[in-house]
């Protein structure tokens, strides 16, 4: 069980008023808040041992290198990767996807096929469109139903020996749907295709095991799981990382450089050109430790309570439509909704004045909004530091907004 008061006290940002009202932060799907230990890790790095890594023989450089590589090990253990060099530090999910898409440019030919899902974030659509433009490969889309679930029988029909890559998110940021990635991965492998899973929205809620999933690539961002912005990780199976060419050229990623020929460094450095976000990587490790201390089983059961309570309370409101599955077992603590005849942006603006932070708009997932023929939704996404009392405050604020706009 979670000691919610203790947890909330660990997040300094939560204890404040916004627009004169206690802050209710329900925009965790966009970015999470940071516990004091993560803030401290950042301050500690810059106050005590800031230095460039993998380069200097001096003491601070050694300390920084050790801390950065220790963070890589924490990430490796967390995701259960087989080797530490299968963990590539990136600037976030978006960069991880672009890295793999760039690498596949060398491996694809005209009329090869890439399958994406209808539920993707733009960052898991656009890099593949760019790759298709570049190579002449085709992009196919797994369709969804009105409940926001991907149609697996349609997916199976799309697979063929032309399929080279299947990409899908683990949990949809637009609707909260938990996608059947085990099935998706197994069927893709049977067809001889590689799989990339976008875990940005899943990692705050659950602990993926990349070996059990048998996934080829898994990407995520630190900032949605209590870590800082500007850092993330790409997991890639060793065989795939060896096959892909480097993404960026520069320092740190080379073995030898002459003007005639450069040879690349071994994994993981082959993909880590330039001075990385050293501090961010270290604090990412701290965030992972923190979340594991809270415990992912505790997080899952508590967030499930919030999801059930929030769904029930919202459904009592007049004119509400909640998008996505009604089966809460297939959903993370994300609720996307609208009120009949009212623009989501107007609701968001009014409840912000009442201290409630939600996301409104297309959530970087415009194809989902087009499917429902709506301009966007109001999205309340809960984290383990939120409470039922905060949900009550949101409900009161929504009632006021309805009165003003209705
Ligand atoms: C947030 C998010 C992204 C993008 O993450 P960045 O940190 O902005 O790179 C991609 N996919 C999903 C599902 C997300 O929720």
From TrEMBL:
Coiled-coil ranges per UniProt: none
Catalytic activity field: (sulfur carrier)-H + L-cysteine = (sulfur carrier)-SH + L-alanine
Annotated protein name in UniProt: Cysteine desulfurase
Co-factor(s): pyridoxal 5'-phosphate
Alphabetized NCBIfam families for the sequence: sufS
Record domain Aminotransferase class V: where: 24-393
Enzyme Commission number(s) of this protein: 2.8.1.7
Keywords: Pyridoxal phosphate, Transferase
Enzyme class: transferase
Family the UniProt entry places it in: Belongs to the class-V pyridoxal-phosphate-dependent aminotransferase family. Csd subfamily.
Pfam family, one: Aminotran_5
Molecular function in Gene Ontology: cysteine desulfurase activity; pyridoxal phosphate binding
């Amino acid at each position: 069980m979670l000691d919610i008061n203790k947890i909330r006290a660990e997040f300094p940002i939560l204890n404040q008023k916004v627009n004169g009202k206690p802050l209710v932060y329900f925009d965790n799907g966009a970015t999470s808040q940071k516990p004091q230990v993560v803030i401290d890790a950042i301050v500690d790095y810059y106050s005590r041992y800031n230095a460039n890594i993998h380069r200097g023989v001096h003491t601070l450089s050694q300390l920084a290198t050790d801390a950065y590589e220790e963070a890589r090990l924490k990430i490796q253990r967390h995701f259960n990767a087989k080797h530490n060099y299968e963990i590539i530090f990136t600037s976030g999910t978006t960069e991880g996807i672009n890295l793999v898409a760039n690498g596949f440019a060398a491996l694809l030919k005209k009329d090869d096929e890439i399958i994406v899902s209808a539920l993707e974030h733009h960052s898991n659509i656009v890099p593949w469109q760019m790759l298709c433009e570049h190579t002449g490969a085709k992009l196919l889309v797994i369709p969804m139903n009105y409940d926001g679930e991907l149609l697996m029988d349609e997916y199976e029909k799309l697979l063929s020996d032309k399929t080279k890559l299947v990409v899908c998110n683990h949990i949809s940021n637009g609707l909260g749907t938990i996608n059947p990635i085990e099935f998706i991965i197994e069927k893709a492998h049977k067809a001889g295709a590689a799989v990339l899973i976008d875990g940005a929205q899943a990692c705050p809620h659950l602990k993926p095991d990349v070996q059990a999933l048998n996934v080829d690539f898994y990407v995520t961002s630190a900032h949605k799981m209590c870590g800082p912005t500007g850092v993330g990780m790409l997991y890639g199976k060793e065989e795939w990382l060896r096959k892909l060419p480097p993404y960026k050229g520069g320092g740190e990623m080379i073995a030898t450089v002459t003007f005639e020929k450069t040879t690349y460094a071994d994994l993981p450095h082959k993909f880590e050109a330039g001075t990385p976000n050293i501090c961010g990587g270290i604090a990412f490790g701290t965030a992972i430790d923190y979340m594991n201390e809270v415990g992912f089983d505790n997080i899952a059961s508590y967030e499930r309570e919030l999801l059930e309570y929030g769904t029930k309370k919202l459904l009592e409101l007049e004119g509400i439509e909640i998008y996505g599955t009604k089966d809460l077992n297939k959903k993370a603590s994300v609720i996307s909704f609208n009120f009949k005849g009212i623009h989501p942006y107007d609701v968001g603006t009014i409840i912000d004045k009442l201290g409630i932070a939600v996301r409104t708009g297309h959530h970087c997932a415009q194809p989902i909004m087009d499917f429902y023929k709506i301009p966007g939704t109001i999205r309340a996404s809960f984290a383990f530091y939120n409470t039922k009392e905060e949900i009550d405050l949101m409900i009161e604020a929504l009632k006021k907004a309805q009165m003003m706009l209705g």
